[in-house]
Amino acid sequence: MAINYNGEITVVLDMQHRTPGNLRAFVQASLRSLRTGKTSDVRFSSTEKIEVVPMMTTKMEYSYKDGQDYVFSDPATFETVTLTGELVGDAKNFMVENCLVTMTFVDDKAVQIELPSSVILTVTDAPDGVRGDSANNVQKAIIVETGITVQAPLFIKTGEKIKVDTRTGKYMERA
Fold this sequence. Notes:
Elements lengths: L1 E4 L2 E11 L7 E8 L5 E7 L5 E3 L1 E12 L2 E5 L6 E5 H4 L11 E7 L2 E6 L3 E8 L13 E6 L4 E5 L7 E5 L5 E4 L1
Antiparallel strand pairs: 1-2, 1-5, 2-3, 3-4, 6-7, 6-9, 7-8, 9-10, 11-12, 11-14, 12-13, 14-15
C-alpha cells in the first residue's frame, strides 16, 4: 500500500506488528519515498492515524533497454513508461522482450513491478555433461539469454527453452 507519511507519499515495502513484553503494541514498517527513492524504517504506535493513498495496477509489456533505463508499454494503449534500473531491481534478470509484468502506479508514477511466478528463457550456453556424472540429480551451471546462471539437469542443451522460477531463480522444467 501507499501512505502519506510526513507530507510525502511513500510505498510500504514491509510491515510487522509487534507486541514486546510489557510495552504497548506497535507496527514496524519499511517505507520507500517516491520523491527521493530512499528507504527508511519507521515505527508507528497504535494511536497514530495514517492516510492511505490509492494505488493502481496495470499489465505492462517489457519493450527494450535504453542505456540504464527499461522501457515498458501498455499493450492496450501503446503508451510507454520508462523505469530506472534501480526501480526494476532483480527483475531485470528474468525479463525478455514482450514479457508481461504487473506495474503498480501511485499518482501516475510507477513505483513497483511484479514478474509472473515463472518465465520461459532460452539457454545460450550449456556445457556438456561429463560421462560418469550420472549419480542422482546432478546439475550443471547454464547461462540463459538474460545473462544469469541457472543450475539445470545435465540433459539441457544450448538453444533449448526452459522454465525458471522468478522468486528463487531455479530451473523448473523444459518449456
